[in-house]
Amino acid sequence: MTGEASRLQTALSRYAEGPAQLEAALLGLSESGLDLAQTDDTWTIRQIIHHIVDGDELWKICIKAILGNVEGLYDLQWYWDRPQTEWAENWRYAHREIELSLSLFRSNRQQVMELLQSVPNAWEKSIRLKWPHKAEERITIAYVLVMQACHVTGHINDIQMIRETYHV
Questions:
Q1: Does the residue 144 lie in any domain?
Q2: CA nearest 106: which of 49, 158, 66, 154?
Q3: pLDDT tens-digit profile of 50-85?
Q4: What is the CATH number of the domain that holds 87?
Q5: DSSP letter at 34?
Q6: Nearest residue to 145 via CA among 7, 3, 2
Q7: Choice among 3-7, 129-133, 159-163 with the minimum mean pLDDT
Q8: pLDDT at position 81
Q9: Is 136 among the domain residues?
């Protein structure tokens, strides 16, 4: 396996393992534990979970857009027009159960993996993306997979820090 193929396989594995890693980070956590935050002005574990899943769903659409229209433009301006905290409030992160979101996360990742396995060289395909306050750039599926795998890992670290702070 070449270095590039190995890196892609590692990215695919990290992406696929995200739901299991998130669920492992939640093991043994009580319902009240989901509402703990590092500080008063940071998200609770419950809010972090919903943020991970909703963000993952947005980027799943990007992956599907790439596979369907490599000449297209993926634009999340509607989302980037509001701060993350506002989306968390609008989508009621603090008040929702986590089970459906965790199930959706598992299903979405499984569907993306199945889709990528059925499209030859899928990770090399790309689309134009308009970032907020930046020039348009072309991103690949591999880029999205790595970005989303890192996003989950970063928030799992946040969850672990909260659990360590409260010894839960």
A1: yes
A2: 49
A3: 999 999 999 999 999 999 999 999 999 999 999 999
A4: 1.20.120.450
A5: G
A6: 7
A7: 3-7
A8: 92
A9: yes
User: Among the residues of the chain, which ranges form H helices?
Assistant: 3-26, 45-68, 77-80, 84-90, 99-118, 141-166
Residue 72 lies in a domain: yes
Residue 24 domain-assigned?
no
Tokens describing residue 82: 């509001």
Residue 157 is predicted with a pLDDT of: 98
Domain that holds residue 148: 42-166
Predicted confidence (pLDDT) at residue 8 exceeds the cutoff of 90: no
Question: 168 Cβ partners below 8 Å, 6+ apart?
Answer: 29, 30, 33, 36
The Cα–Cα gap between 164 and 168 comes to 7
Q: What is the number of structural domains in the chain?
A: 1
pLDDT for res 7: 78
